[in-house]
Amino acid sequence: MSLLMSFLGGSLIGLAAIGLMFFNGRIAGISGILSSALLPKERAGSDKETGLAWQWFFLFGLVSAGFVYALLSGSSSHNQPQFNQVSTPLLIIGGLLVGLGSNIGSGCTSGHGICGIGRLSLRSVIATGVFMLTGMLAAVLIH
Amino acid sequence: MNNKWIASLSGLLFGAGLLLSGMAEPTKVIGFLDLKGLLDGSWDPSLMFVMAGALSVYISVFHLYVKPRVKSRTSANSAISSGPVCDSQYHLPEVKKPDGQLIFGAGIFGLGWGIAGICPGPALVNLGSLDISLGLFMLAMITGLYIGKLSQNYLGSQAQA
């Protein structure tokens, strides 16, 4: 049952990501969207976009889903996810590495693992293989 | 329809998918990455099913509907209307070949992912939990993104000089 939910939830992620490509021509890579929103590139004068960048609207939707879920699941704190799987210093090191690595490697789980492999991009297949391996290495050693 | 409405809807669905699939929970991610679980039977294969679900939708729709439109822009095939629905062009990466920077960055990213069990999507979708540990992770992650951007700007300006 939980594996079926994982598959169906995954399909919903795929639908959201391909929808963004089909309608807007954009890759649903969360690290890229976040860094474009927070640290926008200086664009040439050809940029016709006005107002808040589309990236902020995507992030608004993503964060809203979490708030709705938190409200619906209410005070039943036993099924709240736990984020302190490791000590605070390790958690901060983990965050730094995730941010730095996704910036240097041009993508994260969503951009490479779903949208990139979804286009059968060689770069993304390799990147996903590498971060799965180092992720397993870190998890085996630390947990 | 406006591309910003599409972006909001896509973000909302993406977040719902992360939450329903269980991938927003670090324990599920670590349960997959920590292969020691194979020894005592506690290994959690969920992440593979999430990837399979997402890729089955993405690969099929991309190759059936999107790729012909991308191609029709480069060949003069006007039979298929080209371009995405709400934009004049597809924004796809220009770099095609793997390089050292890609492998180095992906390696670092994976280490952080395996340590904390959190990647950027789940970090954002979990902001609603108002959890302090998650907030710390988020701040560190944004700092990491910023350091990456600064160092690449610096290296880029060095290369141009």
Automatic annotation (TrEMBL), chain A:
Residue ranges that the Swiss-Prot or TrEMBL entry lists as coiled coil: none
Highest taxon of the lineage: Bacteria
Compartments, record wording: Cell inner membrane
Pfam families: Sulf_transp
Keywords, sorted A to Z: Cell inner membrane, Cell membrane, Membrane, Transmembrane, Transmembrane helix, Transport
Entry-linked InterPro entries: Sulf_transp_TsuA/YedE
Entry's transmembrane regions: 12-39, 51-70, 90-108, 120-142
Mode of membrane association: Multi-pass membrane protein
Family assignment from sequence similarity: Belongs to the TsuA/YedE (TC 9.B.102) family.
PANTHER family: INNER MEMBRANE PROTEIN YEDE, SULPHUR TRANSPORT DOMAIN-CONTAINING PROTEIN
Name recorded for this polypeptide: YeeE/YedE family protein
Species whose genome carries this gene: Shewanella nanhaiensis
Species lineage: Bacteria, Pseudomonadati, Pseudomonadota, Gammaproteobacteria, Alteromonadales
From TrEMBL, chain B:
Swiss-Prot/TrEMBL keywords: Membrane, Transmembrane, Transmembrane helix
Pfam families assigned to the protein according to its UniProt record, in alphabetical order: DUF6691 (PF20398)
Source taxon at top rank: Bacteria
Bilayer-crossing regions: 48-66, 102-124, 130-148
Record's protein name: YeeE/YedE family protein
Organism (species): Shewanella nanhaiensis
